[in-house]
Amino acid sequence: MTGPAGEDREPATERVYVPDFLTELFRNPLDPGYAEAAARPRPTGGVGWSARLVSVVVLVALGFLFAVAYRQTVAEEPGRSQARAGLVEQINQRQQQSDELTTRADELRDEVTRLRGLALSGSDAARLRELEAGTGVGRVRGDGVVVRLADPPENPNAVTGGDGANGPDRVIYSDLQRVANGLWGVGAEAVAINGQRLTATSTIRSAGDAILVDFRPVTGPYEVSAIGGRDLRQRFEDSTTAALMRRVADTTGISFGVRTARELTLPAAAEPRLRYARPPVSPGPSPTAADERTSPESSDARTSPSPSGGGR
């Protein structure tokens, strides 16, 4: 193009205003490739019907399996309930038999004590009663304390919906061990847990969620009874065990209390199974075969005449 002065000029280009990236993104949010794929017509042939048929067959098979499993579970439920009821009945019967045998054993023990007291002199009987009280195989009576431990109230867990008392914030076997050892440490003469007398060979352990004292289960609330004089409570209250149990109670929410008991009676423990160590018997040197051949006894035995008087 020639200007007024005869000079060549470049043609004027038209300026195009392109929108910014965000405006273009909101105007066309779908990628062109995806837009083209979405605009394609879907096939209406046998492929679609085949996929639908497979889906229907799979759903029908799953429904049939679920129905069979449900019916089998419902059919086996009476048998499981009956087996469970039978086991519960057997446990109750064995527990009743065990209680009856324990009562009978206590009666026989009292009878043996009475007869033994009649057979022994006064000093010997008193000495024997003292030894029985110290070892736990004799019934004792006196002033003492009762330490009570109980699980916290059953508050449902806000997250799981379960019972909060079944978690770690409950009375465990080590709490009973700590209290029993603390009572022994402050001068208790006899200790029992829920009526189970403790001896020098007693055990306090756990089996799952159950607490066993000498292999017998105990349930809460737990009462640790001890005999040891009128000032036993004050000595236990001032001990480090009581201070520790108070902190545990404040932290976990379990119940911990100590009260004085007058004329407290603790039953006798079961007869302990005593085990003795015996020295091994050292056998003497056995005679060798050469000694047997050359010993006079063996030679006489071979050359002596028979009892009937015959011989060679």
From TrEMBL:
Biased composition regions of type Polar residues, renumbered to the chain: 296-312
Coiled coil as UniProt keyword: yes
Coiled-coil boundaries: 91-118
Keywords: Coiled coil, Membrane, Transmembrane, Transmembrane helix
Region (Disordered): 270-312
Membrane-spanning residues: 49-70
InterPro entries, per the entry: DUF881
Pfam family, one: DUF881
GO cellular component annotations of the record: plasma membrane
Superkingdom of the organism of origin: Bacteria
Keyword Transmembrane found: yes
Family: Belongs to the UPF0749 family.
Protein name: Uncharacterized conserved protein YlxW, UPF0749 family
Taxonomic placement: Bacteria, Bacillati, Actinomycetota, Actinomycetes, Micromonosporales
